[in-house]
Amino acid sequence: MPVNEYMKSITYPLSLLNTPVWLFDIDRLRIVWANTAAVSLWNASTLYELQQRDMADGISRTVLERLNQHYDDLTGNLTSVAEHWTFYPRGRPCSFECFINALDAPEGERWLLVNASSEDKASDSDTLYRSSALLHTSVSISVFDRHGMLKYLNPAARRMLGANLLTLPERFVDRQDWHLARDKLTQMAETHIEAQMVTANGTAWHSMTLELCPDPVTGNSSILMSEQDVSDRREAQLRVHQLAYSDTLTGLPNRTSWLNKLTERLDIADDTQQRLGILFVDLDRFKLINDTLGHAVGDKLLVAVARRLSGCVDGDQYLARLGGDEFTLLIKENTAEDHSTEMAMRIVKSLAAPMNIDGHVLSVTPSIGISLYPEHGSDANQLMQQADLAMYAAKESGGGVRVFQPRMTTQIQRRLLIENQLREAIDKKILQVYYQPKLHTSDGHVIGMEALIRWEHPTLGWVSPTDFIAVAEETGMIGEITQLVLYEAMRQQTRWAAEGYEVSVAVNVSPVEFRQGDFVAIVREALSVTGCCSKFVELEITESMLMADSSTIQTILASLTSLGVRLSIDDFGSGYSNLGYLQKFPLDSLKIDRTFLSDGEISPVIDMIIGIARTLCLTVVAEGVETIEQREFLIAHGCDQLQGFLFAKPLQELHATQFLKTYAEPGNRWSHRAIVST
């Protein structure tokens, strides 16, 4: 049927009705036809004017979705839908009960037939329910005109705003949020946004739905806004984000954040030809601090270190904590590597000043490795690996700063080889115990032997104790090495005693082993198994081990003293010197750190240490003696025992026994003392 004939067949009978009736095109959002009563209801002067009116300005997305759903339902099983609609025919609201039907329009168009059959008599009660809901809901609801001027607030909104009756744009803390919401309203008639909003109590994060709708009084287009405070949820989300991307101890970015930032900066650097420097910072001897002073002190030290590192960082540099005592720093590099090196030296200088942590004066030194982009790699993992290798190279050379060099790969491979084969060396008893004599200053006779562990590897040759002891401490094998030396030294002392030589044996104790709850039992068992006389056993502990919890240390030391063994401080003055604990603990002797005799010079500190030890009735041992001048100075200033290459290097059991037979008896032998080596 032609369109004109179809329209006549439909509209003619409808035009005779006194109630408002109209045809609505869902897709074009226009009224296709209306009878005289409907034209008046829609407040139009003519049908043509009504047909030209664009209804999109007054229909929200929610209403449009509802109309589309009605059409689908009505073309299915339903025959009619009833709704309450409000119109403004004479500038005042008027509610009607509208019945909606679907029509099969020509050319596949989707039309709805709407009949506002009578003014809704139930609207009064419906209005009461709606008003009650607005009055009692906890959701803040407000109405603004199209320009954002406030028109209405429900009680919840009034409580939320107080006296701040602001315009809608003024409510937004960030005006860009308002511009975004306004643009979406213009495009889609409805939007949802979360933003910081002004409230009576300051600002808060709100979740809001804004919708264009007719003003219920004037019928003009207005903005209906409902909002709820979601500050608690936002704070929880922020906390989750911080846990995922921030280090909980120091507040610095964590490993995940670091890798994301490094990858992002590398992408930018690739496009802009920018050079980057990656600094890998590791604290020297931090594990020792943790093992001796406890994790609480260690954690506070890390926080203090993070604070100092942050003080070194400039605006566009990126500092993070990877975990443990490892920190990383990303900086923009200049044409040469000087910038990264200068930054590394600034960090070294910043950390040099002692830190007071819970009454412990601690000095930490970093080992810093540097890798450069693009010279040392093109991706994050490769650059991190190269910086890590450079850091290990710095640590093996005693700390400081190193820039990555290809040869460092070979060095780390050697370290991994040591780690892998140290277990086999322990299990197969390949490690050997050597002995270095300690001589009495009165006449040069041997008064004791220090037991020292040595390792001859079939391909690496002699592995320095500095190398494999550090690996043993990191991997947890140090306890087995300590016990190996302890048992073997006691057995050797027993053999020497059986030959008539009353010499003591000194054993170095690892901080890790010392803090084990069963260390006293281990010493007691070793004495029992070997039959060694406890008065000839000396345990050398480091200063740092005495800096831990005093009550725990005192208990351990008292238990060891009750066994009859002697206690000595090894490497006194090497970093944590606190003369106060010399009176607090049951110590027998102290060994002056070899650094005070380094480079052939004699530090004046030695005289002071000897004087204090004399006052406290402690035996003083000087290690690292290499020249006759050092020997004479130490004898003249009252040192009790000497140890060093001037007299003998560490000796195998057989050579140590021969040395002992030669110099065991008292007598003036200083005039012909010579270095003995193997």
UniProtKB/TrEMBL annotation:
Database matches in SMART domains: EAL, GGDEF
Gene3D superfamilies with a match to the protein in the record: 3.30.70.270, EAL domain
Listed InterPro entries: Biofilm_reg_signaling, EAL_dom, EAL_sf, GGDEF_dom, Nucleotide_cyclase, PAS, PAS-like_dom_sf, Rev_trsase/Diguanyl_cyclase
Residues covered by the EAL domain: 415-664
Domain GGDEF: 274-406
Cofactor: Mg(2+)
Record-level Gene Ontology MF annotations: catalytic activity
Cross-referenced PANTHER family: BIOFILM ARCHITECTURE MAINTENANCE PROTEIN MBAA (PTHR44757:SF2), DIGUANYLATE CYCLASE DGCP (PTHR44757)
Listed name of the protein: Putative signaling protein
Organism name: Granulosicoccus antarcticus IMCC3135
